[in-house]
Amino acid sequence: MTRRRKLRGAIVGALTVALVGGGIYTAAALLQRSERLIMEGCTAAVGSQQAELATDQAANAALITAISVRRGLPPRAASIALATAMQESKLRNIDHGDLAGPDSRGLFQQRPSQGWGTTEQVMDPHYATNAFYDALVKVPGYEGMDVTQAAQRVQRSAYPRAYAQHEAMGRSFASALSGQTHAVLDCTLRSPEQPGDPAALLEELQSEYGSIPSSAAGSTLTLEATDDMAWSLAHWAVANAKEFAVVQVDVDGMSWNRQMRKGWQESAGGGGTVAVTFAEAPAG
């Protein structure tokens, strides 16, 4: 082989390596850009109605509904609570009030000066939600009331009619998160940036639902539940997938996959359990 051919071969090889490396870099850059462009959010599509929430709002909606399930309340109670919290705080645990209630705090903007508890207590979403339900169940016939009427009996708001605008959202998310309707809650999320922690998710889940039989193997947490309870837990896991780096949820022959972004799809999984799979730490 002549010196010229050797030089030509070396140049071609170098160019090939450069092109392959450049292609990989470009593909990685495009992937990162596409991830950044993903609009994260959660939807609950029940019948002809579809409601949307941001991921942090959906996680709070899941908490409010889980506590109603734990207390054995009907989905209507969660629907009223969700519409109320959306009006009062946009379903966010805010640490300030307004001119009408300067000491109002938390998901339900409860006022310590009106006997709802201390500032620290009403800023605790678990305490605030239970306090709301404690008051709601004392309202005779609340299940048959309009959302506005029931919420007003609890909140005593200066703008009682405002709750009605959130009734559809409340019904959709309450129906999904209570497990009354199946495979209807979906979250569009970017890829996880950190590995998931099954123990952390289980701790939060049981703080909201109470004790749930469970077992863990590797990156998968299995929860024992059937029927509506199984779907309540499954939808809860999807609503909390962003915080806990959940990548897949399997229940009752259906699967939600974070990377596929196609909502709930049929799978080979059986009934009787909810399998929650978490992102793993990268190998290396």
Would you list the SSEs in sequence order as H and E?
Answer: HEEHHHHHHEHEEHHEEEE
How many separate helices? Answer: 10
Averaged pLDDT: 89
Proportion of helical residues: 40-55%
- Poorly predicted regions are 27-31
- How many domain regions? 2
- Output the structural class: alpha+beta
Distance from N terminus to C terminus (CA atoms, Å) equals 42 Å
Main β-sheet, spatial strand arrangement: 4-5-9-6-7-8
Principal-axes shape call: globular
Proportion of beta-strand residues: 15-25%
Give me the Rg, rounded.
24 Å
User: Which sheet architecture does the biggest sheet show?
Assistant: 6 strands, antiparallel
Number of strands: 9
What does it look like?
The protein has 284 residues and is α+β, with helices and mostly antiparallel strands. It folds into 2 domains: 43-177; 183-278, no CATH class. Helices cover 46% and strands 15% of the residues. The chain has 10 helices and 9 strands. β6 (246-251) and β7 (254-257) form a beta hairpin. The protein is globular, with a radius of gyration of 24 Å.
